[in-house]
Design brief:
The protein is mainly α. The chain has 6 helices and no strands. It folds into 2 domains: 86 residues, D-Maltodextrin-Binding Protein, domain 2, CATH 3.40.190.10; 74 residues, no CATH class. Helix content is 48%, strand content 0%. The two termini are 18 Å apart.
C-alpha cells in the first residue's frame, strides 16, 4: 500500500505524507475516524466499510473497473495511469524445469482458475482473475515488472533490499 501511495504521489504531483502502519487493518480506525485523509486499501479490507457507507471509494488501482464498484473509476480514468499498482501472483518453478512439466502445471492451474467455486472465493477476497497466461507471457511480465519497479524505487528513493 505504501508503494501504491508513492506511485500516486509521483504521478499526480500531490504532496503526500506517508504514515506507516503494520499493515492496512491497524490503520483502518484512523481512516474511519478521520485522522487520515485517505488510504490505499485492498478490496478485502475496504469492501465492508464501503458497502456500509463509512468509507467512499475514490478510485481503484486495477486496469479495469471492479465489478463490485462499477461507478468507481480506475486511476487511469481519473487521470493517473502511472499510479496503477496491481498485485499479482504467478506460479513459478526452477528455471531448469522441463518445458513439458511447466506446460502441464500451467494447464492444471488454468483448470483450477476456471472452477466457479475457486473463482467465487477469489472474487470474495477482492481478486481479479486475468486471462490465461502462458509461461512465456509470465516470464515477459516478470521482466517488465522488474524494470518498472527498479525505475520507480529510484524515483521514490527506496533502496532495494
Amino acid at each position: 500500500m505504501h508503494l501504491n501511495t508513492e506511485m500516486l504521489r509521483l504521478s499526480s504531483g500531490i504532496e503526500l505524507q506517508p504514515i506507516a502502519y503494520k499493515g492496512v487493518p491497524p490503520g483502518m480506525p484512523d481512516l474511519l475516524t478521520g485522522r487520515l485523509a485517505f488510504a490505499m486499501s485492498p478490496m478485502s479490507v475496504a469492501r465492508g466499510h464501503v458497502a456500509s457507507g463509512s468509507l467512499r471509494a475514490l478510485a481503484v488501482a486495477s486496469p479495469t473497473r471492479v465489478k463490485d464498484l462499477p461507478d468507481v473509476p480506475t486511476f487511469a480514468e481519473a487521470g493517473f495511469p502511472d499510479a496503477q499498482v496491481v498485485s499479482w501472483y504467478a506460479l513459478v518453478a526452477p528455471s531448469k524445469t522441463p518445458a513439458a512439466v511447466r506446460q502441464r502445471l500451467n494447464e492444471e492451474f488454468t483448470k483450477a482458475l476456471a472452477d466457479p467455486g475457486v473463482r467465487d472465493r477469489l472474487a470474495q477476497a477482492g481478486a481479479m482473475i486475468s486471462d490465461r497466461s502462458t509461461p512465456e507471457q509470465v516470464d515477459t511480465m516478470l521482466k517488465q515488472q522488474t524494470v518498472r519497479w527498479e525505475q520507480a524505487l529510484k524515483k521514490i528513493k527506496i533502496d532495494k533490499e
